[in-house]
Amino acid sequence: MAEPVLLSLSRSEWDSMYRLAYKGELWAADQIDALWDGYKDQPVPCFLCDHQCGWPVPNTLILPEHGDPRRVLAAPLCWECGELPQMVKFNRAIHILREMFRKEGCQYHVTFNPKRRHPR
Ligand SMILES: [Zn+2]
Fold it and tell me: How much is the pTM?
């Protein structure tokens, strides 16, 4: 499996950017589109299936960061994995993250807050 590419982002910045993009703010949508620009010249493997995502990276899955509730992880997904049901994507991603952190000798716990699922 290729080395996974993950971005660590500030949770509050991500939340406000996502909320504004959802409300139609184009600059916020552009910021989200530009998330993977630093990887434009290198292959980006899909976090779930390891196939190349292609360019632009078609989907991003936001996951809880290990040990820091103020941050989130952005994981790139290919078209096929991006089309999976949300719970399937989260289950697979959390399984992979648990394996990654187990190798580093730490446990990965995830807490989801249902109230935060949809932007207001
Ligand atoms: Zn994939």
Answer: 0.83
